[in-house]
C-alpha cells in the first residue's frame, strides 16, 4: 500500500498553504479512484499547536484514509554545496513517504545537496522546488518532479515566472533559492550560483545516476 506525505508549515500557531495541501491530498485520492476522508483543517484543529515558534506538521497517510501525524520543531539551515545529478528515469508524480530513491541519488554526492537534471532540464532538489534569479526576476524551471505547494502559490501570486532552464543556460542566472512548504519566498536563502560545484563550463560535468 502506498503511503503519502504532507509537510505543513505551522508558525506562531498559524498553518500555511492549507488549501494547496488539501487539494494535493484530494487529487492523490482521485488519481487512484479512492474517496478521501482526510480533512487537514479538522486534523490540525484536533491537536495542540504551540502559539509561538516554527513547526513542521507532518502527516503521512494511505489510500484507506489511515494517517499518522507529527508536529516537529523546524529550523532552516544553510547548505554549503550543491551538485547537478543527471537522472532521466526518475519519476515522482505524488508526494510519497518513501524517499529511498532520493537517498540513493545522494549517496555519491559526498554531503552536497543534489539538483536533479532530467532530459537536460533542471528540475528539483531532493526536497524542494527551485527558483533562479536573472535581471531582478525570479524564474522557476518549467520542468519539475513535483509541483510543490509553495511553487503553485508563488506562480499564482505572480512573484515568480516559468522558464526553460537547462544546465547549458544555468550561468545566465546569478542566484537560486530552494522553496517548499516550510521555505517561502521571503525566508528561503538566496545562494550564489557558485554554490553549484559542477556547473557546465567549470571544468566539470554533471554526475550521472544509472
Can you describe what's shown?
The protein has helices at residues 18-31, 40-45, 100-106, 149-157; strands at residues 3-11, 14-15, 54-62, 67-73, 82-86, 113-118, 121-125, 129-134, 137-141, 161-163, 175-179, 191-192, 207-208. The protein is an alpha+beta fold and 210 residues long. The strands form 3 sheets. Strands 10-9-8-11-12 form a 5-stranded mixed beta sheet. A 4-stranded antiparallel beta sheet has the order 2-1-3-4. A hairpin with a 2-residue loop joins β1 and β2 (14-15). The longest helix is centred in the N-terminal third of the chain and has 14 residues, at 18-31.
Outline:
By secondary structure, the protein is an alpha+beta fold. The protein is built from four helices and 13 strands.
Task: Provide the descriptors you would attach to this structure in a database record.
210 residues; alpha+beta; 5-stranded mixed sheet; 4-stranded antiparallel sheet; 4 helices; 31% strand
Strand and helix layout:
Blueprint: E1 3-11, E2 14-15, H1 18-31, H2 40-45, E3 54-62, E4 67-73, E5 82-86, H3 100-106, E6 113-118, E7 121-125, E8 129-134, E9 137-141, H4 149-157, E10 161-163, E11 175-179, E12 191-192, E13 207-208
> What is the general shape?
globular
Overall average residue pLDDT: 93
Provide the structure class: alpha+beta
Stretches where pLDDT is under 50 for at least 5 consecutive residues are 203-210
Q: How would you characterize the largest beta sheet? A: 5 strands, mixed
Strand order of the largest sheet: 10-9-8-11-12
β-strand percent reads 25-35%
Share of helix, binned: 10-25%
Radius of gyration: 18 Å
Amino acid at each position: 500500500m502506498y503511503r503519502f506525505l504532507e509537510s505543513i508549515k505551522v508558525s506562531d500557531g498559524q498553518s500555511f498553504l492549507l488549501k494547496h495541501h488539501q487539494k494535493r491530498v484530494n487529487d492523490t485520492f482521485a488519481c487512484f479512484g479512492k474517496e478521501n476522508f482526510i480533512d487537514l483543517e479538522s486534523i490540525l484543529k484536533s491537536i495542540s499547536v504551540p502559539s509561538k515558534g516554527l513547526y513542521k506538521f507532518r502527516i503521512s497517510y494511505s489510500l484507506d484514509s489511515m494517517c499518522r501525524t507529527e508536529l516537529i520543531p523546524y529550523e532552516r539551515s544553510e547548505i554549503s554545496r550543491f551538485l547537478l545529478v543527471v537522472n532521466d528515469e526518475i519519476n515522482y508524480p505524488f508526494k510519497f513517504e518513501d524517499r529511498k530513491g532520493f537517498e540513493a541519488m545522494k549517496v555519491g554526492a559526498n554531503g552536497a545537496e543534489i539538483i536533479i537534471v532530467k532530459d537536460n532540464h533542471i528540475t528539483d532538489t531532493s526536497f524542494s522546488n527551485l527558483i533562479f534569479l536573472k535581471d531582478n526576476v525570479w524564474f522557476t524551471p518549467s520542468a519539475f518532479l513535483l509541483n510543490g505547494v509553495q511553487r503553485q502559490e508563488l506562480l499564482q501570486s505572480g512573484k515568480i515566472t516559468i522558464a526553460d532552464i537547462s544546465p547549458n543556460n544555468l550561468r545566465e542566472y546569478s542566484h537560486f533559492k530552494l522553496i517548499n512548504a516550510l521555505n517561502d519566498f521571503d525566508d528561503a536563502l538566496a545562494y550564489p550560483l557558485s554554490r553549484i560545484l559542477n556547473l557546465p563550463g567549470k571544468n566539470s560535468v554533471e554526475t550521472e545516476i544509472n
